[in-house]
From TrEMBL:
Any one GO biological process: meristem maintenance
Top-rank taxon: Eukaryota
Upper taxonomic lineage: Eukaryota, Viridiplantae, Streptophyta, Embryophyta, Tracheophyta
Any Pfam family: PMD
The name this protein goes by in its record: Serine/threonine-protein phosphatase 7 long form
InterPro entries, per the entry: AminoTfrase-like_pln_mobile, MAIN-like
Domain Aminotransferase-like plant mobile: from-to ranges: 65-231
Length: 234
């Protein structure tokens, strides 16, 4: 008997991509490979363990709606569990297929875990055609520093460049409000690129998110929870 008739989908009309699915490799005996996640947030969270963010910055993160992500801290990944879940995820139905039935990630899950806003405007936009110099000027205006040209890759910025910047800046009660806001935007980018919507490169974050953070007051009007859910469910 064909093993795929036992371990694969009983009806191939719905799960039609079984031959390209990772679980099909199990039937060929390739069951020892454990997926490893690419992460770019290690140094950021390590620094936060040594010293919390300044209260003024925390207040702005709360205003944006990212405070829950900051309070949850660095999530410890169980790579074996993630591997098992990947083997049970089906893009045809956008759900995990377990022996007890189907399950999926919901918007309520994202809201409860991280407290992100789920109502409001969609987080969307288009990739802008800017030169490296224009991106450098943009970063200087909104996050307080101009990255080196080698730290930019199109509209994406190296996470380590942002980390190096925030480690150099010291926020005090006398720090100008503009500097505090720029610092908070930089931290928000790190949360987006390292935790909420991590880039597959493991070291880049899209500067397109920064357009939604230009106005700190209006930033909470975006449905960040919906954006995170859409990012994690292909």
């Amino acid at each position: 008997m064909d093993r795929r008739a036992v371990y694969g989908p009983r009806d191939g009309t719905v799960l039609s991509q079984q031959s390209q699915h990772r679980s099909d490799e199990i039937l060929d005996g390739d069951i020892d490979e454990v997926l490893q996640a690419k992460r770019a947030d290690g140094k950021f969270w390590k620094n936060l363990r040594e010293q919390d963010l300044p209260i003024r910055v925390q207040q702005i993160l709360h205003q944006i709606g990212f405070y829950g992500v900051y309070r949850c801290g660095r999530i410890q990944y169980d790579c074996h569990l993630i591997t098992a879940l990947v083997e049970r995820w089906r893009s045809e139905t956008h759900s995990f297929h377990f022996r007890v039935g189907e399950a999926t990630i919901t918007l309520q899950d994202v809201q409860i875990i991280w407290g992100l806003p789920i109502d409001g405007e969609p987080v969307s936009g288009t990739d802008l055609e800017r030169t490296s110099v224009q991106w450098q000027e943009y970063c200087m205006q909104y996050i307080g520093f101009a990255p080196e040209e080698g730290e930019l890759k199109g509209s994406r910025l190296q996470v380590k460049a942002i980390i190096h910047h925030i480690l150099r800046v010291h926020i005090t009660p006398d720090t100008p409000h503009l500097t505090v806001v720029q610092y908070a935007r930089a931290v928000a980018l790190l949360l987006l690129g390292g935790t909420m919507c991590p880039d597959s490169s493991g070291n880049l974050v899209s500067l397109l998110y920064l357009a939604k953070l230009e106005d700190i007051v209006a930033a909470r009007n975006y449905s960040w929870g919906s954006a995170v859910l859409a990012f994690f469910i292909p």
